[in-house]
Write a structure and sequence with these properties.
Largest sheet: 7 strands, mixed
Shape: globular
Strand content: 15-25%
Number of domains: 3
Helix content: 25-40%
Number of strands: 18
CATH class of the largest domain: Alpha Beta
CATH superfamily of the largest domain: FAD/NAD(P)-binding domain
CATH architecture of the largest domain: 3-Layer(bba) Sandwich
Number of helices: 14
Distance between the termini: 53 Å
Radius of gyration: 22 Å
Length: 524
C-alpha cells in the first residue's frame, strides 16, 4: 500500500469563498497555522466570485428588527430565531469593520459621504451595499489578496477534498471506537499528481459552498456540486433542510450563456417581467409583484411558461428603469451584449435556475457541527437563518459573519491535545488495477443526475415525481460507487460520487417533508 504524503495544520479550511476566506483571515490574524484548499486551480473560483447583487447592511432608515422581520417573513416563519438575531445585530458591524475598514471594499456611493443602498425582493428597505453588479468578485479578490500577505496561511489550489478524516472510522486502533467521533482532517486529492494526501488538522472548517450544479439549469458555477454536504453526511454530521432549494427567478436564456445570472437588483431598479406576448403578469401572483420573495417569483414564471408552452419569459428593464443602465449594471450589460441583447433597448429572455440551498450541515451560532472538530460556514451550513427560503443578499453576509465567528470560537477554545498522527490512521486505498476514466461515462451520469433533479425534484414537486427521482438516483448510485472503487483517482470521479449523494439527500428530504413551504413546493 502506497504511503500518502501527510501535512499537519492547526486549521484546515475547505473552500475559499467569503465564508472560508473570512474564517482564514480571522484565524491568520490570531496566529494559527492555516491550510486552505480549493479544487479549482483558481483560488477565487466560488459562488462568491459570481455574486452580482450585493451584501445586506442597514440603510439610513433601517434597524435590526426590520431586517429580522423581512428574513423571517421570506423564510416562511421556520427560521432559527437565534441565528437571525446574530445576523441582524452583528452583520452590519462586520461589514463596517472587516469589509470597509480593513479590506477597503469600494462600495458604491450615492454622494461623497453616503453609501448607495439598493433594493431587492423581500426587503422592506433599501439596504444592499454593492459594487455595481460585480460585488462578489471585488470582495473575493480583496480577501484573497489579504490572505496572500500572511506567512502562516498555505493556499493549496487544485486540491479536491475526497473525504473527511474521522476517528474512530479511519483509525487503526480498535479502542478508539469507545471515544466520541471527531473530525481530524481530510483525505485530499492532488489534481495534478492524482495522489491522495492526508491533511491532519486540529479543527476543520467546511466552506465548500452550495449544490446548484446538481440541477440541469443553475446560476452556480459547474463546480458547485455540494462536495461538503456529501462528505459531512458520510462522516456522520447532522444534515437538515435539504429540501429547501431556492431557484433564482432570472438567469439568461441563451444556448451559450450557461446559466448567467440576471441579478434581482434589476427588478429592484424597476424591471418588469413579461410573457412572450409582452404582457406583465406578476400582479396576478403576488402583492409585491416583481419584488416578491424569490420562490413566489420563480413559481409565477414557471406557471407562465407552462401556460404559454414557452421555454422563457422576458425581463424588461429598458422600458421602466430610471437609472443609467450601463453605469449601474456594466457587467450584465456587456455580457448580454455579447449574446446579441442590448438591455438598454430590449427585454432579456430569462428562465429560473437552481441558485441556493437553504439547508446543509446543521451548526450553532459559532459554526460548530454535531461532529467534534468540524465547523461549517456559508452555504454548506445550515444556521437556520434562511428558514424555508433565503432573503436576497443575506448569503454573503451569513458567510462573513459565521466564517469570522467560527475562527473566533476556535481561537478561544483551541485544544492541541486533540491532535492525531499518521501511524494511527489508515492510508488511502488504491485499486490494484486502476481503470482509466472515460469522460463520456462521467458526462452521461451527470446528465442523468441533473435531468432527474430538474424534472422530478425541481421547482414544483409531486410525490410521484420524487419517488421516481429516488428510485432512478439509487440505481445510478450503485453504478457510480462500483465505478468509483475501480477507477483511477480523478477530481471528476470524486465529484460524481459527491454529486449523486447530494442529489439523494435533497430528494429524500423532499419525500420526508409533506408540508409545502417556501422553496419546497409540493403539488399533489
Amino acid at each position: 500500500m502506497e504511503k500518502a504524503e501527510a501535512l499537519k495544520t492547526d486549521i484546515l479550511i475547505i473552500g475559499c469563498g467569503i465564508a472560508g476566506a473570512s474564517a482564514a483571515l480571522e484565524a491568520a490574524k490570531s496566529g494559527f497555522k492555516v491550510i486552505i484548499i480549493t479544487k479549482s486551480d483558481e483560488l477565487k473560483e466560488s459562488n462568491t466570485f459570481y455574486a452580482q447583487g450585493g451584501i445586506v447592511s442597514l440603510g439610513p432608515d433601517d434597524n435590526p428588527e426590520l431586517l429580522k422581520e423581512d428574513i423571517i417573513q421570506t423564510g416562511d416563519g421556520i427560521n432559527n430565531p437565534e441565528a437571525v438575531d446574530i445576523l441582524s445585530t452583528e452583520g452590519n458591524k462586520m461589514v463596517d469593520s472587516i469589509l470597509i475598514d480593513e479590506l477597503d471594499i469600494p462600495f458604491m456611493k450615492s454622494s461623497p459621504d453616503s453609501l448607495d443602498y439598493a433594493q431587492e425582493g423581500g426587503h422592506s428597505r433599501r439596504r444592499i451595499l454593492h459594487i455595481r453588479d460585480t460585488t462578489g468578485k471585488t470582495i473575493e479578490e480583496k480577501f484573497v489578496a489579504a490572505l496572500k500577505g500572511y506567512s502562516n496561511v498555505t493556499l493549496l489550489s487544485g486540491h479536491t477534498a475526497v473525504d473527511l478524516l474521522t476517528v474512530p472510522h479511519h483509525s487503526k486502533n480498535p479502542t478508539s471506537f469507545y471515544k466520541e467521533p471527531r473530525c481530524i482532517g481530510c483525505y485530499v486529492l492532488d489534481n495534478k499528481t492524482k495522489k491522495v494526501k492526508i491533511i491532519f488538522s486540529t479543527y476543520t472548517i467546511l466552506a465548500t459552498g452550495g449544490c446548484g450544479a446538481v440541477y440541469l439549469y443553475t446560476s452556480n458555477p459547474r463546480g458547485a456540486i455540494g462536495d461538503g454536504y456529501a462528505m459531512a453526511y458520510r462522516a456522520g454530521a447532522r444534515i437538515v433542510n435539504m429540501e429547501y432549494v431556492q431557484f433564482h427567478p432570472t438567469s439568461l436564456f441563451h444556448r451559450d450563456a450557461d446559466g448567467f445570472l440576471i441579478s434581482e437588483t434589476l427588478r429592484g431598479e424597476g424591471a418588469r417581467l413579461k410573457s412572450k406576448d409582452g404582457q406583465t403578469f406578476m400582479e396576478k401572483y403576488a402583492e409585491k409583484k416583481e419584488l416578491a420573495p424569490r420562490d413566489e417569483v420563480t413559481r409565477a414564471i414557471y406557471e407562465e411558461m407552462t401556460n404559454s408552452n414557452s421555454n422563457y419569459v422576458y425581463l424588461d428593464l429598458a422600458s421602466f428603469a430610471k437609472i443609467d443602465i450601463k453605469k449601474r449594471f456594466p457587467h450584465i450589460y456587456k455580457t448580454c451584449l455579447r449574446y446579441g441583447i442590448d438591455i438598454t433597448k430590449e427585454s432579456i429572455p430569462v428562465v429560473p435556475a437552481a441558485h441556493y440551498c437553504c439547508g446543509g450541515v446543521l451548526v450553532d451560532g459559532w459554526g460548530r457541527s454535531s461532529l467534534g472538530g468540524l465547523y461549517a460556514v456559508g452555504e454548506v451550513s445550515c444556521t437556520g437563518v434562511h428558514g424555508a427560503n433565503r432573503l436576497a443578499s443575506t448569503s454573503l453576509l451569513e458567510g462573513l459573519v459565521w466564517g469570522t465567528r467560527a475562527a473566533q470560537h476556535i481561537a478561544s477554545h483551541f485544544n492541541p491535545v486533540l491532535e492525531h498522527t499518521a501511524p494511527d490512521i489508515h492510508q488511502w486505498y488504491y485499486p490494484e488495477k486502476e481503470e482509466e476514466t472515460d469522460p463520456a461515462l462521467i458526462n452521461q451520469d451527470w446528465i442523468s443526475i441533473r435531468s432527474t433533479m430538474w424534472n422530478y425534484a425541481g421547482i414544483i414537486r409531486t410525490p410521484k415525481r420524487l419517488e421516481r427521482a429516488r428510485a432512478d438516483l439509487n440505481y445510478l448510485r450503485h453504478r457510480i460507487e462500483k465505478f468509483y472503487k475501480e477507477a483511477r483517482m480523478d477530481t471528476n470521479v470524486v465529484g460524481l460520487k459527491h454529486g449523486i449523494q447530494v442529489a439523494l439527500l435533497i430528494t429524500s428530504a423532499a419525500i420526508g417533508n409533506p408540508v409545502s413551504r417556501g422553496s419546497h413546493y409540493l403539488k399533489n
